[in-house]
Every structure is written in structure tokens, then in C-alpha cells.
Specification:
Blueprint (H helix, E strand, L loop, with lengths): L1 H4 L4 H36 L5 H50 L2 H7 L1 H40 L4 H48 L1 H6 L3 H54 L2 H49 L20 E8 L9 E8 L4 E6 L5 H6 L9 E6 L2 E2 L5 H6 L1 E4 L8 E2 H5 L11 H10 L3 H4 L9 E2 L8 H14 L4 E5 L7 H14 L4 E5 L3 H4 L4 E6 L2 E6 L1 H7 L1 H10 L11
Parallel strand pairs: 3-10, 3-11, 6-9, 9-10
Antiparallel strand pairs: 1-2, 1-4, 4-5, 7-8, 11-12
Helix pairs in contact: 2-3, 2-5, 2-9, 3-5, 5-6, 5-9, 6-8, 6-9, 8-9, 13-15, 18-19
Length: 588
């Protein structure tokens, strides 16, 4: 938690300093109240005192209480500003850090956990800053100041207060030792419950189609029961604390009055009035001491869970991404050339290579296709180019420069990427197709229209209510799978990139649309290097180069007709998809 506090900005530190001054003033005023009560008690029992003297003390006491109220409001506002400002900056830091992660780091934490850390965990930190800061500053000052005022007044009464403080400290320590280990589990279980809820929402159609509602309910019930069980345990333990604190406080008050009464009874006549005033003052100051420790107990109640949340946030902030951004952001003489040099790759949690000894060159304007059985490494190979992962060994060069040397902005500006899973954002058709920037410039309206036309999306877009300004729901839930793919392809084309990457991005299209789209792509992207991962032979049969993968290894490389003759795996795939008479009928 202290490491997070160090991240306070200058503005928050200044507000914290101002709050501390107001808290000192508040404590001073609160410790003045018992003095006024003592004065009023003395005046009431003094024969020659006037009612005006008593009223004057009462007015001063009222003004003191009003000042405490005003200062309390100011302190509350200041600490709220500190908590809100700090959480805003912390949430931005966490978001930026997560945004810099590669796929390895995202999988390490899991999406549901990263969401919890960015929201729930930061909220806990904000609460302790907003409510806990003033308590953490006020309580020790109040306790020390109050003790200094009563220390020399009566050793008997001071001893009673000391016993009460020690008793409260022992009780709090014992209860905290039971609760802290449980709080460490709460956030992990919160991650689990978020993960199950997210899974249910994303897979709701499949769940209903398979009548699996009861299975998912049981799955949720299991994690929910675990979280509830720990919540009940910690709640019961913490609820024991307050009655015990109240009990100690009541017995302390009773003890002070009993001991005070005995002292007054045994004192000389001229000392009785002073002793009576001291007992009144002492009882009030003792309550201030006890209330200070009760306030600290609130911090101790909050701290275990906040400490766990703070450590989880720091775990994200202290994680160094494996994919480190380069510095090159200039222009290159070559445009669109890609070269793989002896590339090997394995996933972080795997002992075997997913790709082995991959080498090839694609020049500007050429189209290369990848095909092979499911799980052969096609998508993995494609994902190495935008550096979602870094190669285990070997090199990938774009325009003659290792991709590790590029800045991310420069590298991504060269690419138009269409992922395997369709991803659209809430907004209009226009906003989705012109999404992002290339060298600081967004695609213009004409580029958007032309890209949609090339992607064969014009037909359905013009039928939409607002055409290019029609609203697309989050994830594209209000359009079909094929329409989503075409808008994704349009988004990549609109950037006019050097390199176009299609990761099995034609799978939702019918054969006719697929053929027309590919022809339009060849005509409109002659200056771009195209890389296509496909399951269909028809999608890549006209590529300048086709690479056949099997278990992460290249088992064939060449054009369609060449591979039919010299690559058994490619021929088997072709024969399974095309009629015998179609195999050689339309060679490139």
C-alpha cells in the first residue's frame, strides 16, 4: 500500500498537506471541549459566579463545536478530492500498462482478473484514501495529545485508561490475525466469479442451445458459495470487534466514575471541587483516547483487503512486457517486403516448438497464402508479424529491418490487420471502417466508401437506415457474420497499408462473394503485400506463393499447380475441397 501512496501526484500531496493542517486544527478544537465543560462545572459550583459567565462559556463551546463541524466538512471534501484524483490517475496507469502488454502477459493475468484489478481493486484503494487518510492522521495525533493532557492528573485514572488501550490493542491484533489470510482469498474469488459471469454472457447462445443453463448455474453457485462463505466468516469476525470495543468503553467510563468517586470521597474538602472537575475532564479525554483507537480499528478493518488489492495493482504495474518497443520510426527504401529467417517459436507455457525453421521472402505487391490442417501454426505465424508474440529465435524483417527495432506506431502503420475473430466497436459504419490512424491521419470519407465497395459491403450498407452513418452495436451484434467480416476487411483496406494480413478472414463468406472480393482485392491492392491464412483452397489458389504447414513445419512452398504435383498434403486438401475436374482448370 505504501508503494502505491508514493504514486501520489503533486496536487494530491498539496491537498494532503492542507488536510493535515485542518486535521490539527480539528483535533485542537475537539480537545478544547472538555476544558469548556470543566469550566462550566466549576462555575456552577462556585458561589460568586454569574449566569453570564456560564452562558459565555456555553457560547464559546458552541462556537468551538460549529468550527469543528465546518472543518470536518472541509476535510471530507479535501480527502475525497485526493482519493478521486489518485484513483483516476492510478486507473489510467493500470490501463496504459495493460495496453502495453502482449498476449503473454494478458494470458498470465487473465482478462477477468485484469478487469477486477482495474475496477474493484482500485475502488478499495480509493475508499481507504478518501475515508482512511483523515483517520490515519487524526487518530494518532488525537491519542497522543489527549494522553499528554491527562497523564499527570491522576495515576489511578491513567492506569485504567492504559489497561483499556492495551486490551483493545490485544483484541484487534487477535481478530486481524484471523481475518487477513481470508481477505487474500476474497479478490481471487472475485476474479473467478467475474470469469464465470463473463463466460456465461459471451456464450449465452450456446448455453441455451444445449440446455446447459443448470450446468452453468451450478458452476456459478460453486464460486459464489466459496466467496459467500469467506465473506460471512470475515463479516462475523469483524462484527465481534465493535461490541467488544463498546463494552471496553462502557466499563472504562464506569471505572473512571467509581475510582473518581472514591478519590473525591477520601479527599480534603478544599480539593473535592478540583477533583470533581478533573474526573469530568478525565472521562472526556479518556473517551477521546479510546475513540482514537476505535478509529484506528476502522483502518485495520479496511487495510487487509486494501493491502491485497494494492499488491494486485502493483503486480500489474511492475510487470515488464516481454515485447519491448523499438525506436525506429523513419522511412525505409523498401516497401512491403517481408522476410522470415529461420524462425522458431514456442508459447511461454509450452516445452515444444509451435513453429520450426520457417524461412521465406515476400516482395512488395505479392500475395502469399498459408494452408494446412487445424493447429498447424498458421495463425501463430501470422500473429508474429504484428508482434503479438516475439519469436523464440530467428528474425522477421519488414522492409529489411528487424520488426523488434520498429516503434509500435511505425510498425502498425505499415499494416492492415483482419483477425480471425470479427471485432467491431460500438459506433457507425463510418467510424468502424475509418478506425485508427496511420501516421497520425485517419482515412477520409472517400477512402471509406471505396474500401467498403472493394470489400463487397456496399450492397448491405446502402440498405441500412442511415447507410454509412448507420449504427453498429458493440461487437457487431446487429449484423451477420459475413457482414462483420466484410466491414473488417474494409477497415484494413481503408488504411492503404503496405502489408495486408488476413487471418482466415473469408470463412464466413459464401464462395461467390469470396471470389468477387478476392478479385477486387487483387485489382485494388496491387501495391500491397498480402498475407492470407486460409482453410479454403479457393481463397489462396491464385496467390504468388503458397506455404503448406504441417505441425509447425513447412512441407511445401510454391504456386497452386506446383504444389498439386509435388506436395501430398496440399493435394489431399485440394481433392477434399475441389472436384477432380476443377483442380487444374483455372490455374493462375
Amino acid at each position: 500500500m505504501l508503494k502505491l501512496i508514493k504514486k501520489l501526484r503533486k496536487k494530491e500531496i498539496m491537498l494532503l498537506f492542507i488536510s493535515s493542517i485542518f486535521i490539527l486544527a480539528q483535533v485542537w478544537l475537539e480537545l478544547r471541549l472538555p476544558d469548556y465543560m470543566a469550566n462550566i462545572t466549576t462555575l456552577v459550583q462556585t458561589p460568586d459566579s454569574s449566569i453570564n459567565d456560564i452562558v459565555r462559556q456555553g457560547i464559546d463551546m458552541f462556537n468551538c463545536s460549529l468550527s469543528i463541524l465546518i472543518i470536518s466538512v472541509i476535510i471530507g471534501l479535501l480527502t475525497s478530492f485526493i482519493g478521486a484524483g489518485f484513483s483516476k490517475n492510478l486507473r489510467k496507469d493500470v490501463f496504459d500498462k495493460v495496453y502495453s502488454f502482449g498476449m503473454e502477459e494478458v494470458k498470465k493475468f487473465s482478462i477477468s482478473s485484469l478487469i477486477t484489478r482495474t475496477t474493484n481493486d482500485i475502488t478499495h484503494v480509493q475508499k481507504i484514501l478518501s475515508m482512511g487518510l483523515q483517520i490515519a492522521i487524526k487518530a494518532p495525533i488525537m491519542a497522543v495529545w489527549a494522553i499528554s493532557k491527562i497523564l499527570n492528573k491522576s495515576y489511578e485514572l491513567s492506569g485504567l485508561t492504559g489497561i483499556a488501550v492495551v486490551l483493545i490493542f490485544v483484541i484487534m491484533t487477535g481478530l486481524m490475525s484471523l481475518v487477513i489470510p481470508k481477505f487474500k482469498l476474497v479478490q481471487k474469488l472475485t476474479d473467478n466469479i467475474n470469469g464465470v459471469v463473463r463466460e456465461n454472457l459471451l456464450g449465452i447462445r450456446v448455453i441455451r442451445a444445449y440446455n446447459a443453463e443448470h450446468y452453468q448455474e451450478d458452476k456459478f453457485e460453486k464460486v459464489n458459495r466459496e466467496l459467500t462463505k469467506i465473506g460471512k466468516f470475515t463479516g462475523k469476525i469483524m462484527n465481534i470487534l465493535w461490541p467488544i470495543m463498546d463494552l471496553v468503553t462502557y466499563f472504562l467510563t464506569l471505572g473512571i466514575y467509581i475510582v473518581g468517586a472514591l478519590l473525591i470521597e477520601n479527599a480534603a474538602l478544599d480539593m473535592k471541587l478540583d477533583l470533581f472537575s478533573n474526573v469530568i475532564v478525565f472521562s472526556n479525554y479518556s473517551m477521546q483516547v479510546i475513540s482514537s483507537f476505535m478509529m484506528l480499528s476502522m483502518i485495520l478493518i479496511m487495510y487487509p483487503r486494501v493491502s491485497v488489492s494494492a499488491n494486485r495493482i502493483l503486480e500489474v504495474l511492475n510487470t515488464k512486457p516481454k515485447v519491448v518497443e523499438g525506436e525506429f520510426d523513419g522511412q525505409t527504401e523498401l516497401k512491403g517486403k517481408i522476410e522470415f529467417k529461420n524462425v522458431y517459436f514456442r508459447y511461454p507455457d509450452s516445452n515444444s516448438y509451435c513453429l520450426e525453421n520457417i524461412s521465406f521472402i515476400v516482395n512488395k505487391g505479392e500475395t502469399i497464402g498459408f494452408i494446412g490442417a487445424t493447429g498447424c501454426g498458421k495463425s501463430t505465424l501470422i500473429n508474429l508479424i504484428p508482434r503479438f508474440y516475439d519469436v523464440t529465435s530467428g528474425e522477421i524483417l519488414i522492409d529489411g529491418i528487424n520488426i523488434k527495432e520498429y516503434s509500435k506506431e511505425c510498425l502498425y502503420s505499415k499494416m492492415g490487420y483482419v483477425p480471425q475473430k470479427s471485432t467491431l466497436f460500438s459506433g457507425t459504419v463510418n467510424e468502424n471502417v475509418t478506425y485508427g490512424e496511420k501516421e497520425g491521419i485517419k482515412p477520409d470519407y472517400d477512402s471509406m466508401v471505396d474500401a467498403i465497395k472493394v470489400a463487397q459491403g456496399e450492397e448491405f450498407v446502402l440498405k441500412m437506415p442511415e447507410q454509412y452513418d448507420s449504427v453498429i452495436s458493440r461487437g457487431g451484434s446487429n449484423i451477420s457474420g459475413g457482414q462483420k467480416q466484410r466491414l473488417q476487411i474494409a477497415r484494413a483496406i481503408a488504411r492503404n497499408p503496405e502489408i495486408l494480413i488476413f487471418d482466415d478472414s473469408f470463412s464466413a463468406l459464401d464462395y461467390k462473394t469470396d471470389a468477387v472480393l478476392r478479385k477486387a482485392l487483387r485489382d485494388s491492392t496491387q501495391e500491397s503485400t498480402n498475407r492470407i491464412v486460409a482453410q479454403r483452397i479457393g481463397t489462396i489458389r491464385y496467390a504468388d506463393k503458397i506455404i503448406v504447414l504441417d505441425n509447425g513445419k513447412v512441407v511445401g512452398m510454391g504456386k497452386h499447380d506446383e504444389l498439386l504435383d509435388n506436395c501430398k498434403l496440399y493435394r489431399d486438401i485440394a481433392e477434399s475441397q475441389l472436384k477432380k475436374g476443377e483442380l487444374y482448370n483455372a490455374k493462375a
